[in-house]
Amino acid sequence: MNKTILISLLALSLTGTLAAAPATYDFKDPKGVNAIQFHLDSLLEPISGTASGVTGTVSFDPADPAATTGRIVVAAKSLLVTNTMMTEHLQSPMWIDVAAHPEIVFELAKLSDIKTEGNTTSATATGQFTLKGVTKEISVPVKLTHLADAFGKRLNKPELKGDLLVIRGEFAIQRADFGIQPGKNEDKVNPEVKLTLAIVGGAPRS
After folding, report:
1. Residue 2 CA from chain centroid, whole number
2. What is the tally of helices (H) and strands (E) in the chain?
3. Rounded to an integer, what distance in angstroms lies between the CA atom of residue 147 and that of residue 162?
4. Which residues make beta-bridge pairs with 167?
5. How does residue 2 score in pLDDT terms, banded at 50, 70 and 90?
6. CA 133, CA 155: separation in Å to the nearest integer?
7. Rounded to two decimals, what is the model's pTM?
8. Averaged pLDDT for residues 147-162
9. Cβ atoms within 10 A of the Cβ of 117, count?
10. Residues in a beta bridge with 57
11. pLDDT confidence of residue 21
């Protein structure tokens, strides 16, 4: 009897260990939906746009969110606004300079102020943000929603197994901090850039 109990306890312990293992979520979206929105609410010309070239990976364990690591990359050339000429200006050497600096990167250093309710974890993500060749540490309030067994459902392929991780957040940067026309055209291009992200990564499994 004692041997049977011991084996059962070991089996439960092993199951818990396996369940707690982190998964790696790929944010290169096969549906092409992932995008980050940006807003410059200037006096004369409020500007809004999107950046759709999102890639990167995040390692996340819902049982241990403090151990989260990851790197999200945005292709600078995917930054677009509704006006074609403004998009050309935005991507030019005078502004973002996408030819010389093709990637915008956030490298996660840590999650803090972690609170989990149900399948959603709220936290402050601190890391290195690189834009136009300038890297600065920023902190971003985020929500990470873990959707178990939802990978195939999102792709309308229920035979595919795996989980999803949805990351949501809003933050602001000063364009002068990244050498983007500091102090210039502030009536048309706000010095503060507001960014909103709601992106989903998938972790398929066999």
Report:
1. 49
2. 3, 11
3. 9
4. 144, 199
5. low
6. 36
7. 0.87
8. 96
9. 7
10. 26, 71
11. 78
